[in-house]
Amino acid sequence: MKRWLALTLLLCALPVSALEVAGVKLADKTRVGAEELVLNGAGIRTKVFFKVYVGALYMAEKKTAAADALAQKGAKRVSLTLLRDLSGQQLNEAFEEGIRANNSAADLEAMKARISELLALFADGKEGYVILMDFVPGTGTVVTLNGTVKGKPIAGEDFYRALLRIWLGDKPVDEGLKKAMLGGAS
Asked: Domain residues for 134?
């Protein structure tokens, strides 16, 4: 009985170390470059009635307002875990549509070459694949697919903010996911 009580007390004292969304376990902390980031929020991207991916946002400090999250300086990570197979074309169209919907024509023109660099990185994605989009200060946006860095870093914090607007902008790809990534329930 003492062992059971001791084990129960020990388990109760351990911190909860991860969030689970749609069967995807997300760490409560991660590192990008030299910075430790915390999970700001996570949710499911749905299109029509299909679950497409689990999206998670990591930042240095938790923010519940989109403007505050977009303005926060320093390292950041968006993690996308695919819940279904997607073609490279589907991924490209989704990223391009999200960027175009949430950035001005002038900003899009200024980032045209960098948007093309991003879109050139995506190939077919299978269910369970993890896409990481990290902003590393002094380096740029680093895209990783299943642990393999794709292409070279894409310069500019302005570019990473343009990417974040896909999920946190005025016309996000999914309102429920935006709310969840900002720490609310989806």
From this structure: 17-181
